[in-house]
Design brief:
CATH superfamily of the largest domain: MutL, C-terminal domain, dimerisation subdomain
Distance between the termini: 91 Å
Number of strands: 22
CATH topology of the largest domain: formyl-coa transferase, domain 3
Shape: globular
Number of domains: 3
CATH architecture of the largest domain: 2-Layer Sandwich
Strand order of the largest sheet: 5-4-3-6-2-1-7-8
Number of helices: 18
Structural class: alpha+beta
Largest sheet: 8 strands, mixed
Bound molecules: adenosine-5'-diphosphate, magnesium ion
Radius of gyration: 29 Å
């Protein structure tokens, strides 16, 4: 085909695709415009998950009649004039693309009145073409109605998900803005049903209560930045969950940079890092973290959807977030006794010393932790080697009494009664057996089918490069591949099936904190296997001999009290407790 310049219609639909992916993108862009317009009250209404109808109404500054049509031209904005302004963005919008993009792929009705003018303007557009332009009465502010999204882009329309899914994306955006702007009142309704409202009283905690409910909202700890930060130009505010409150994924860590919601793996990791040793493995905190820094220190013009940012100095921001959260946790909630963990050998190169010092600064300062860090470890490789198991963790010999609910085994020990979850117990037994088997297999290396370039965070890349030799000894084969990329040729056999990027990030996290570099990815892989293999299910009748066998195997475990996912395998009712329950006085 010969080269041709695309028609305006095709070009604008292509460009629109980058900004408007689904109904929630429309909501996001319109709400951003309302916030930029200084609104105090923002109402969002949708029908059919936003596919048929979206209306955003605000009481902001409105658009003067003479400029209303211009607002729909591509690259028309009132928020930016010179390229140099890009270095200091203080508004959510600045690309002048949203209204043009939305109008290219839907039917839009735009009613607006500037506070300085006696009468407003009504504009109607269909696929970028203005079909109506007239005067209209309305109070100062703006209302935008977007109907039949993608009516002229069938390919996109096909990719829209169920109404429920689209609604949940809209909910997510609205709650994000409610959290970022507690002084504004946001209201959301779907198909005429009010689903969310923020009070607009300026208090973030009240927004959190509206988003997460009373119990979780009240449990959140307010971030109290430590002294170290008061002189810095970076301010970190917000709320984080106490260590007792956690979730199975990172999805509850919400980050804002200068009032803009951002997706940033590294800052998310900074929050998780701050909980190091405070949370069960594979559990993640809830957090709403606002980073404030001078606008010239962050580039928001990375992507049309503007949810990625680039920092002038990412390390400084990482540390500021990690320290503020850590400080809050240490100050506001007691630290449980440090979990014994395998340390690993560190060479004493100057770079290493520096890294150690840095790691020390990032780590809790309790005496026992300090000790562990100074210790020289026995050996590397076996993930469980060097782990001290406190005697209290071990199980006493138990006598099987019977089974209840074909799910639990009742057993008796010297300290009372034990109710054991048969499935969880079996998972634990298999988990430790598999771990031991794999550790015996040693540091075998398994080549990838093809060498794979893996891009890492600068922090992780630095740590990994520095410890390349140790990691080679563990079965890694990789080399620096320019920038923060490593070319991975082989992984330790223990984690060969895992995603190389995740393995390396986990290893870097362990290097930073002084843990055994492979413990967590190995455990994760093994835990996955165990889930598939665990044969004894709840609801399965067990013969007495089978129960005996399971309990004997559990007694051999180093951590018999939890399954590999951290759930309890057993409930213990002590003799004392039983006596109390029966009113026999204590002991
Ligand atoms: P951007 O927000 O990047 O400037 P948009 O296409 O979203 O680009 O909006 C274009 C312009 O229209 C804005 O710069 C602003 O002047 C005006 N505008 C859009 N929505 C509103 C609103 N709700 N209230 C006041 N002005 C608005
Ligand atoms: Mg905008």
């Amino acid at each position: 085909m010969p080269i041709r310049v695309l028609s305006d219609e095709v070009a604008s639909q292509i460009a629109a695709g980058e900004v408007v992916e689904r109904p929630s993108s429309v909501v996001k862009e319109l709400v951003e415009n309302s916030i930029d317009a200084g609104a105090r009250d923002v109402q969002v209404e949708t029908r059919a998950g936003g596919k048929r109808f979206i209306r955003v109404t605000d009481d902001g500054c409105g658009v003067p009649a003479a400029e209303a049509a211009l607002a729909f031209h591509r690259h028309s904005t009132s928020k930016l004039t010179a390229a140099s302004d890009l270095a200091r963005i203080t508004t959510l919008g600045f690309r002048g693309e949203a209204l043009a993009s939305i109008a290219a792929v839907s039917r839009v009705t735009f009613v607006t009145r500037s506070a300085d003018e006696p009468v407003g303007t009504l504009l109607r557009l269909e696929g970028s073409q203005v079909t109506t332009h007239q005067e209209s009465g309305r109070p100062p502010g703006t209302a935008v109605v977007v109907e039949d999204l993608f009516f002229n882009v069938p390919a996109r329309r096909k990719f829209l998900r169920s109404e429920r899914t689209e609604r949940s994306h809209i909910d997510a955006w609205l709650t994000r803005y409610a959290m970022a702007y507690p002084a504004l009142r946001f209201a959301l309704s779907h198909d005429g049903r009010a689903v969310f409202q923020s009070p607009g009283n300026g208090r973030l905690r009240d927004v959190l209560v509206a988003v997460y409910g009373l119990e979780i909202g009240a449990a959140f700890l307010e971030i109290t930045p430590g002294d170290a930060l008061s002189a810095s130009s970076i301010h970190v505010t917000g709320f984080v969950s106490p260590p007792s409150l956690h979730r199975a994924n990172r999805g509850y860590i919400t980050l804002f940079v200068n009032g803009r919601w951002v997706q940033d793996g590294r800052l998310t990791y900074a929050v998780i890092q701050a909980y190091h040793t405070l949370l069960p493995t594979k559990r993640y905190p809830l957090a709403v973290v606002m980073v404030h820094l001078p606008p010239e220190e962050v580039d928001v013009n990375v992507h049309p959807a503007k949810s990625e940012v680039r920092f002038q100095d990412g390390d400084v921001v990482f540390r500021a977030v990690q320290r503020a959260v850590r400080h809050t946790l240490l100050e506001r909630s007691p630290v449980p006794a440090a979990r014994p963990a395998a340390a690993w050998p560190v060479s004493a190169s100057p770079a290493d010393q520096e890294r150690r010092e840095r790691a020390r600064l990032l780590r809790p300062q309790s005496a026992s932790e300090q000790l562990r860090f100074e210790e020289k470890p026995p050996e590397v490789g076996a993930p469980d080697s060097g782990v001290l198991v406190p005697a209290a963790q071990r199980l006493p010999p138990l006598r099987v009494v019977g089974q209840v609910g074909v799910t639990y085994i009742v057993a008796e020990g010297p300290q009372g009664m034990y109710l054991i979850d048969q499935h969880a117990a079996h998972e634990r037994v298999l988990f430790e057996r598999l771990l031991a088997e794999r550790a015996r297999a040693g540091a075998a290396s398994q080549a990838l089918l093809e060498p794979q370039p893996v891009e890492l965070s600068p922090e992780a890349a630095g740590l990994i490069e520095e410890h390349l030799e140790v990691l080679t000894g563990l079965g890694f084969q990789m080399e620096p591949f320019g920038g923060t990329t490593m070319l991975v040729r082989a992984l330790p056999a223990l984690v060969a099936e895992a995603n190389p990027r995740e393995v390396l990030e986990d290893v870097a996290a362990a290097l930073l904190t002084g843990d055994a570099p492979l413990a967590s990815p190995v455990e994760e892989t093994v835990a996955r296997h165990v889930c598939k293999q665990a044969a004894i299910k709840a609801g399965q009748v067990m013969a007495h001999a089978e129960m005996e066998e399971l309990i004997r195997a559990l007694e051999q475990c180093t951590s018999p009290r939890t399954c590999p996912h951290g759930r309890p395998t057993m409930i213990h009712l002590s003799v004392d407790q039983l006596a109390r329950e029966f009113g026999r006085g204590s002991g």
